[in-house]
Specification:
Layout: E1 2-17, E2 19-24, E3 35-45, E4 50-55, E5 61-67, E6 71-84, H1 97-105, H2 129-136, H3 145-159, E7 161-162, H4 173-179, E8 181-182, H5 184-197, E9 202-209, E10 227-233, E11 240-244, E12 249-250, E13 255-261, H6 264-267, E14 270-275, E15 280-290
Parallel strand pairs: 7-8
Antiparallel strand pairs: 1-6, 1-15, 2-5, 2-14, 3-6, 4-5, 9-10, 9-13, 10-11, 11-12
Helix pairs in contact: 2-5, 3-5, 4-5
Length: 294
């Protein structure tokens, strides 16, 4: 499946900013065996005085840029074509959940995909006793790790309500969990905390969803903006399983990956600092269209 992706993120300032420094992480990744970036273009307005394209520790494409002239806002736009590829073979069996802790303890790999980076609390995902209890109540000792991951994600989907107005980007996961509502970022942070609490390494995935579903299929929540879901480690042979708790499904060809990280703090679409005063407003538009459709 080939998709054309269009993204615009615009931030308008109440007054002029005299300078700004930003990081952007919005370009789809090129991941062998999973998705291929055919072409991609990222434009910035106003034109920056300095720009540096790089890859971060987790392998995500990051653009650093600086604007030195007075400006009243920043606009980031992306045009990309991506091919999602189906797996060529069935995944290896997941470890029994009872054997996972030993497999994590024996891991000596410190690369970006190592589970050791995804076991402890991270800036946006503290370990939380109530979330651990929730996860523990929905698993059994005879489950495989993959079965436990899906069981926890499904239970969260059934318990929580998607509400685009319920939280902000800074809402703590504990608050969203207590109120049982939120957006994809909240669903993902909560699921990560639940899984880490029961010993399953879990991380955050940012990306895009197909904007219009195939005929006869329901529209996915979160398709109007950048989306988030979870990936969790099932053992050294099975590797990582990606699950979308907002939509109660294993991530599939409708899920286009931009970045992997421990939580939103590692992969936020745009962040930075500026010199100015007054408030600001942001808007975002996303289109993910299969090639040949309009």
């Amino acid at each position: 499946m080939i998709y054309d992706i269009r993204l615009t993120i615009a931030t308008d300032y109440a007054g002029f900013a005299s300078a700004g420094r930003h990081l952007v992480c919005v370009m789809p990744r090129d991941l062998g065996g999973e998705q291929r970036l055919i072409a991609g273009l990222l434009n910035l307005h106003p034109a920056p005085a300095h720009r540096h394209d790089r890859v971060d520790f987790f392998g995500n494409a990051v653009v650093e840029f600086a604007i030195d002239a007075p400006h009243q806002g920043v606009e980031v736009s992306v045009q990309a074509r991506i091919e999602k590829t189906a797996p060529s073979a069935a995944p290896a069996p997941s470890l029994p959940l009872s054997a996972l802790a030993n497999a994590v303890a024996r891991c000596r790999d410190m690369g970006p995909d190592s589970p050791v980076h995804f076991t402890a609390a991270s800036p946006r995902v503290p370990l939380d006793a109530s979330m651990t209890r929730f996860a523990a109540a929905h698993i059994t000792s005879d489950m495989t790790t993959a079965q436990a991951i899906i069981a926890v994600g499904r239970a969260l989907h059934e318990t929580m309500r998607f509400d685009a107005a319920a939280t902000t980007v800074d809402t703590p996961a504990s608050e969203a969990f207590a109120k049982r509502h939120g957006v994809c970022q909240d669903f993902s942070h909560i699921m990560i905390a639940c899984l880490r609490g029961i010993g399953i390494p879990a991380g955050y995935v940012s990306g895009y969803l197909r904007t219009q579903p195939p005929q006869g299929m329901p529209r996915l929540e979160g398709a109007d903006a950048m989306h988030a879901w979870v990936r969790a480690w099932c053992g050294p042979n099975a590797g990582w399983l990606a699950f979308d708790p907002t939509n109660d499904r294993v991530a599939d060809q409708s899920h286009i990956i931009v970045a992997h990280g421990r939580d939103y703090a590692d992969v936020s679409p745009i962040r930075g600092i500026l010199r100015g005063s007054g408030g600001q407003k942001s808007r975002q538009s996303v289109d993910v269209i299969p090639l040949g459709e309009t």
